[in-house]
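Hi all, posting the design record for the shared folder.

TITLE: backbone redesign
STEP: 1 of 1
STRUCTURE INPUT:
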């Protein structure tokens, strides 16, 4: 599993990202359908789809578990952080700045188009630029609010590295440290804490991210590709979905996070499914979903402001929602292939060139 990319998991990312776009479309524009699936206030609460993003983010950390544990060259914290932030920070910062510029333009030139989502917060923009808007030690400004996930994710990356590094120094299994962080997350959730580095945003990341790391370690250590495991996964998933087919509140996060999501990942990593999604196209589409998640709220805010300004937009149509999702994915493609790749090339160009070996 180490270092390998799976198109089936990219397909899962695409499905989740589009579902989140639909969820926020209905939530922010106050849309409810009579003859179609409601992704907001429907049969199931889809806000927990972010937990699946956390699980997948942790799942993909397995190569780093091995690199840090083996103390291989390039496994130092600076290299690890640079690898993570090189992609996340520039695009998140750009999205935050554009979001606030649109808010400023609306408040300055189109006061009639003001909406609850168009707040202006200079300090909040700074914390958002550095991916510290939520879960750290600053009030959440709710600028491009879904990026709270990215903020908590960056914190999870830092904790992950030092927990793994500490396990190496203590000569113990890093899994114990990951379990400890998950237990801290559960304690935060159960106590309802709202303090720096320990609030209700943090606990979602602490629990789900490190669950993903442990899940990857489990799959890497044991042969889970046998048919009996596939049958078992399908059985558990079917029983769970049937038992909790009606909306419920109590153990919703636990059932979804510890039964449904792991079962989906198990099934998507079966050989027949992996072959079905073996095309490199899925990899590119999967990479685009970070950008779809990053930009979709901005476009929803613009639509909301236009509606406040009196522009007639039929947001209550299912077709409009699908058209919106298609436009978001089109912009996500532009953001990934042009903006991100362009920034990456600029980053490489600005790096000091390695000196060639001296002659003589």
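Okay, here is what came back for every position:
SEQUENCE:
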């Amino acid at each position: 599993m180490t270092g390998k990319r799976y198109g089936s998991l990219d397909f899962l990312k695409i499905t989740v990202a589009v579902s989140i776009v639909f969820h926020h479309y209905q939530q922010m524009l106050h849309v409810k359908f009579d003859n179609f699936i409601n992704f907001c206030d429907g049969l199931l609460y889809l806000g927990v789809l972010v937990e699946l993003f956390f699980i997948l983010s942790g799942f993909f950390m397995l190569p780093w578990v091995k690199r840090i544990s083996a103390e291989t060259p390039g496994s130092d914290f600076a290299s690890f952080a640079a690898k993570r932030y090189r992609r996340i920070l520039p695009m998140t910062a750009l999205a935050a700045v554009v979001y606030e510029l649109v808010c400023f333009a609306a408040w300055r030139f189109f006061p009639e188009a003001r909406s609850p989502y168009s707040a202006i917060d200079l300090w909040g923009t700074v914390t958002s630029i550095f991916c510290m808007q939520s879960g750290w030690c600053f009030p959440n400004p709710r600028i491009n609010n879904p990026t709270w996930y990215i903020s908590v994710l960056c914190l999870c990356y830092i904790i992950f590295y030092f927990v793994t590094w500490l396990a190496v120094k203590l000569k113990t299994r890093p899994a114990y440290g990951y379990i400890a962080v998950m237990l801290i997350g559960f304690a935060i959730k159960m106590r309802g804490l709202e303090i720096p580095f320990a609030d209700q945003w943090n606990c979602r990341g602490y629990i789900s991210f490190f669950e993903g790391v442990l899940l990857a370690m489990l799959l890497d250590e044991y042969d889970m590709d046998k048919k009996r495991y596939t049958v078992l996964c399908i059985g558990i998933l079917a029983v769970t979905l049937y038992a909790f087919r009606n909306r419920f509140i109590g153990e919703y996060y636990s059932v979804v996070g510890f039964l449904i999501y792991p079962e989906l990942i198990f099934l998507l990593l079966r050989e027949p499914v992996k072959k079905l999604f073996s095309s490199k196209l899925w990899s590119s589409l999967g990479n685009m979903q970070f950008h779809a998640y990053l930009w979709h709220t901005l476009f929803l805010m613009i639509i909301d402001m236009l509606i406040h300004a009196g522009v007639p937009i039929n947001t209550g149509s299912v077709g409009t929602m699908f058209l919106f999702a298609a436009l978001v994915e089109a912009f996500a493609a532009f953001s990934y292939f042009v903006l991100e790749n362009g920034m990456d090339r600029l980053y490489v160009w600005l790096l000091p060139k390695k000196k060639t070996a001296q002659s003589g």
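COMMENT: The CA atoms of residues 106 and 113 lie 6 Å apart.
Let me know if anyone wants the other runs.
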